[in-house]
Every structure is written in C-alpha cells, then in structure tokens.
Amino acid sequence: MLLRRVSVGFFIVLCFLLLCYLDFHIGPYSNREHRIWLPRGVILIPCYLFCVFFLSREVIRILNAAGLHPLSWTVYLGNSLIVINSWLANVFQQYHLEVCKTQISQGGWHWAATASLFALLSIAIAVMISFSAEMRRYSHPGGVTINLAGSIFAISYLGVLSCFLIQLYMAYGVMALLSVVIVTKMCDMGAYFVGKAIGRNKMSPDLSPGKTIEGAIGGIVFACLGALILFVVAIPVVIPNYESSKNSLLYGWIIFGTIVAIVGMIGDLAGSLIKRDSNMKDSGHSIPGFGGVLDVFDSLLMAAPAAYFLWTFGIVGSAG
Question: Which has the closest alpha carbon to 209: 199, 197, 220?
C-alpha cells in the first residue's frame, strides 16, 4: 500500500511539474519578445478544469450518499463557469484589455479588483442557475431546499476555493502555485510518516482515526522545511526578479509554512467530515493509493486562500 502510494504520488508530482514547465515556457514568460500572446495558464487551466469535473462528480457522489440529490449539471456548469471566468479576468488584466475595469480606492486599475468582480459575478450566475434548475423540476413540496443547498455547497466548496488557486497562479506565477502545493504535500508527508513512527495521541478519533497530534506537529515541521527550501533557495534562483524584504527572508517562510500547513490540515479534515457523514472512506477510486481526486485536492483547496493572502500582503515577497 505504501509503495503504491509513493509510486503514484511521485508520478503525479512529475506530471504536475511537467505541466508547470510547459505552461511557463509556452505562456507569456518566453514569448513576450516575439509578441505571441499566449496567456499564463494556457496549459494548466484546461488541465485543472479536467480535475474540476472529477472533483464535482465525487462531491455529487458524496452528497447522494448523504441523501442529497442536486441536479448534477448545475454543479458541473457552475464550477466550470467560476474557474473559466476567474482565469479570463486575469487574462484580460494581464494584457491590459479594458474589459470590466474596477477602480480601487487608491486610484487606477487593479488586477485583484477585476478578478474578484468576475469571480463574484460567476458565483452569482451559478447560484441563479441552481435556483432556476430546481424551479424547472419542481413538482411537489419536499426535498427542494436540501437539494438546492447541496448544489450551492458543491459550487462554494469547489468553485469558490478554486478561485484562490487560479488567482494565486495568475497574479504571482508558477512558483507561487508550487509554494502552496509543496507546503501542503510536505505537511501530508510529515504527518503521515511521523504519525506512523511516534503517533500516540489521536487528533480526531471519530473523524479521522489515523491522524495524531504528533503527526500534525511533524507535518508542520516538514511544511516549514519545504517553505525554507522554496523561498530561501529555489525561488530566488529560478525567478531573477523575485522581490523579498529582509524580514520576509528571516521569518516569512516560517509564517507561510505554519499557516498553510495548519489550514491544509483543516482542509483534509473537512474532506473527511463530509465523507464520514456519508459513510464513505474515500471520495472515489480513480487514484490508486490515494482514493479519489478530492482526497488529493481537499487540503489544497482550503490552503489556497491562506497562501493567496500571504503572497498578496508580502509575507513571502512577490514574483512575476
């Protein structure tokens, strides 16, 4: 089981790094001189949309097992709409297209305001679609509200949290995306191996019997180690225009590693929460050794807003 998990995990990491490499070199980074306008995310976003399809399917499956039966197509459409529009907003801003500009209090136009407006508009449309679909299939009282709640939950959980992953990448580049992936997965590794070795005190025995307090501490230590290597060694070498204050180099990586690790563990437990409530151990069986796609993404989805906040406010500097 462990060998399969490590092998599959290594393969997933290699595929992800290859996609990042392709996106980095096909996108605007290497083509500005040649005036080839291929937007950042031209490789990664379609791949992520593919993942969103499976994430939506697994969440619908979990909801069905819990007795909720939202209209599946509203979840697929809503999440896809949010992801695509969140990306397009950043593309418009990236190339200075004067589309739906939003003025901030300091004056001028700001990419975050534009992207946020697109995301909010997409969420509102997705909610309206869910309501409209339930109106269309309504025949008698009972079940409508709970099914509608399930649909909006799936859209909020997957679509809204995905916006932060997309905006993190579009605003700060591939190394910012790698930062949240590396730190959360280093935390998962640390929690697993330290928990197996010395774990004694259960962190949440009813929700996730395998997780221990010792494992959680080990996960935070591993996450901080990953953040140290990334921010102090890797990013300054890979990104020549990386900007980081003296304070960021001294303690930013510790703050980033600790906060993202903790929020990522909350995300892992959040995934366990909805699965346990539906009497399910894994969200699916599509990834050998891990379970479903949600079992891989649950920590990332919850950690993305924290990582985005830390990058936006300069805790770990900025990179283009």
Answer: 199
Q: Which two tokens stand for residue 171?
A: 């605003």
Q: What is the pLDDT of residues 288-320, one digit of tens each?
A: 777 889 989 999 999 999 999 998 887 886 544
Among 56, 26, 31, residue whose Cα is nearest residue 43: 26
Residues 6+ apart with CB under 8 A from 199: 212, 213, 214, 215
Of 127, 133, 95, 125, residue with least CA distance to 111 = 95
CB 252 within 8 A of CB 231: yes
The CA–CA distances, whole Å, from 278 to 69, 246, 290, 306 equal: 13, 48, 18, 28
Question: What pTM did the predictor assign?
Answer: 0.86
Asked if 269 contacts 276 with a C-beta cutoff of 8 angstroms, the reply is no
- Residue 170 CA: distances (Å) to CA of 92, 146, 166, 195, 210: 11, 35, 6, 35, 36
Residue found under tokens 């459409």 = 77
Residue with the two structure tokens 């140290």:
228
Mean of the per-residue pLDDT values for the chain?
82
* Residue burial 52-77, b: 16+ Cβ < 10 Å; e: rest: bebbbbbbbbbbeebebebbbebbbb
pLDDT for residue 48? 94
- Rounded CA gap, 191 and 261, in Å? 10
pLDDT tens string 200-252? 888 888 888 888 899 999 999 999 999 999 888 887 777 666 655 444 556 78
Instruction: State residue 208 phi and psi, 5-degree precision.
Output: -145, 90
Token pair for residue 133? 């679909």
Segment 253-281, tens digit of pLDDT: 899 999 999 999 999 999 989 998 888 88
Q: Which residue has the tokens 């997780």?
A: 211
Residue with tokens 């290594």: 10
